[in-house]
Structure formats: structure tokens, C-alpha cells
Amino acid sequence: MKKTTMTAVVKDTAAPGIVIKQVPIPKPKKDEVLVKVRYASVCGTDIGIYDWIPWAASHIKPPQIVGHEMVGEIIEINTKEKTNLQPGDLVSSETHIFCQNCYQCSIKNYHICENMKLFGIGRDGAFAEYATIPIRTTWKNDPRISVEAMSVQEPLGNAVNVVTKADVKDKKILIMGLGPTGLCAGMVAKAYGAAEVVGVNRREYRRDLAMKLGFDRAVAKIDEKEYGTFDAVLEMSGNRIGIEIALDAARIAGKIIAFGIPKENISFDWGKYMINKELSIDSVFGRMIWDTWKDTTELLISGNVDLTKIITHRFKLSEFEEAMKVMKSGECGKILLEP
Question: What domains lie within the chain, and their CATH numbers?
């Protein structure tokens, strides 16, 4: 008998926690593909979904399968349109599902579409044996990239976008926060020719991992003597104190790239930093579609970035609760789930 159900990680109710259950295998709608998931990786956003923070509550309508970082094999394609995809291709999903009709889409800012849905957040995602993906947000992976690395391209793409906006070549760079995307940002900054890359994180585990990945320094805090000496600060933590340090650590006319999402409102002395210091603050929400994905592929194929070094733990999909405990501990890099 043909299999009709699958194991999935489901946000079942509007409350903290998660359930692992059997659900029907989805069928691809018009202009979608059905993939058999090979690997999915756990994101910090998934912690917020698990804990049911206000942001998650405002974006998810349970019940829903979660998870958005993945690689899978195409099983079925439902379209009459011409496509370069075919069964057997290993693909990943761009998280930002764009509408193609709004103003931002008309100027090719697909990643900040005004009517955007998020894979694994606004619709069923990849913490399952099978998943469906719109063809317009399906990325065909280069077979020269390791399958494990394919599942972690989404956060690497975030880092590529951040580092590109910072224009890091020959510059002294500070990275506030060494979660997986911050760690990726350090690797990318070195690959793009930064003169010095310094990472800040309170956890020794993450600092040690940063040094193994090629950071020049990784510290628990920045000495105030270094305030005003960094050409660019990549704020990856979303932590209020981290943001305050970023403002002081950037040199006069320096640049800050905001990526981490704070859990509280942030205020700062506008006159001191924006006027007197002439700081430039830019921000990143995701990846440029598809330019960032192309840049990410080049980094991985060249070997200038090795994503397998950031993968520290692997769990079966059925072990999601244990994976979440490790993720919350901070004593990890990237965690892979295998259905």
C-alpha cells in the first residue's frame, strides 16, 4: 500500500511547545513541487516558535508544520509552465515567498515583498518527511556542494547579504553575536578580504567555534579602548546591550548593519550617533533573490566557506525535543534534523 502519512514537527496549538505527529503527505498545488526532505536545520526563529513569543503568535496560525532551512529531493512537479526543475533534483527553499505583484516585487526587491508569506512560518514547512515549495522560491542546488551544506544555505545567505552591505574588504570588522548566522558572517567577511574580524559572544563554546572558523579574535566583551576603531559592526545579536556597544564601537563615519531582531524596543542618542558621529545604519531582512544565492553557491564551490564546520549536532526528526534543548543551551553551532 502506498504511504499516505508522514512524521512532522507541528505547532499544534497557540501555546508553548511542539508535537511530533503523523500527518497526511501533502500534495503539490499548481506551480509547486513536492520534495522528500533530506535534511532540515534548526534556526533561532524556531526557538521563538517553540516558546510562542509574541512575534511567533502574530505570524503563525496553528496547526502548522514548522521549519524553513532545508534540502530535499524533488518527487513531483505540478506545473504546465516551463521550468529547469526535474524529479531527482536536490533543491532548497527560499523562505520569503513573494507575490510578484506588489511595488517591491516590481523593482525586484522580492525578499521584502509587501504581501510576503514565510515558508515554515506562514505556511507548512520542512520539519517533516515531505514538503511542498512554490516553484518560484525553489532553488536548484549545485551538485558540487555537500548535501549537508545545502540545508544551511539560508542562514549563510543572510550572512552574505549582511557582509556585502558592510563592504568589508581591507576593513576592521566587529561581529556582535556568534549564533550560526554571526559565525557565518565571520567566515564570509574573511572570504571577502576583511583585514580583521572580531567576534563577541558571552558563551565560551561559541567563541571557541569562531576561532576554529577563522576569526582573528573572539572575546566575551570589547575593551572600551577599542571603541571607535571598527570600520563596520555587524549587529547579529538583537541584544540591547550588543546594540549599544555597536554604536560606540563603530568609528566616526563608520557603518552598522542591523540583522538581529530585538525582543524589546530600542532607543539611542540620535544626535550623538547619527549626527555628531555620522554613522550609517543599514539593515538586512533575508537574502536578495536570487543574487545572494548565486554568491553563496560560489563561496561554497570555491571552498572559501566550509559550512560543514559549523554543523555540530545531528538528530533524527523524532528527536526534535532533544535538539531544541541543545539549541536553547547555546552549546552548539548548527543543528541538523534528518527525517
Answer: 5-141+306-338 (3.90.180.10), 158-283 (3.40.50.720)
Residue pair 172/302 in contact by the 8 Å Cβ criterion? no
Reference 157, options 187, 135, 181; nearest CA is: 181
Question: Alpha-carbon distance 192 to 91, whole Å?
Answer: 26
**Beta-strand pair 32-41/130-134:** antiparallel
In this structure, are residues 90 and 123 in contact, taking their beta carbons and an 8 Å threshold?
A: no
From residue 151, how far is each of 108, 125, 310, 335 by CA, in Å?
25, 13, 12, 10
Residue 330 has pLDDT above 60, yes or no: yes
Q: Which residues contact 278 (CB under 8 A, 6 or more apart)?
A: 252, 253
For residue range 165-192, what is the model confidence (pLDDT) as tens digits? 999 999 999 999 999 999 999 999 999 9
User: Could you give the CA distance from residue 177 to residue 236 in angstroms, rounded to a whole number?
Assistant: 5
C-beta atoms surrounding 87 within 10 Å:
12
Prediction pTM value: 0.95
63 preceded by a cis bond (ω within 30 of 0): yes
- Pair 184, 210: CB distance under 8 Å: no
Question: Peptide bond preceding 270: is omega within 30 degrees of 0, i.e. cis?
Answer: no
Q: How far, in Å, CA of 99 to CA of 271, rounded?
A: 39
Q: What is the DSSP-derived secondary structure letter of residue 136?
A: G
3-state secondary structure of 142: coil
Q: Are 212 and 339 in contact (CB under 8 A)?
A: no
Q: Which amino acid is at 21?
A: K
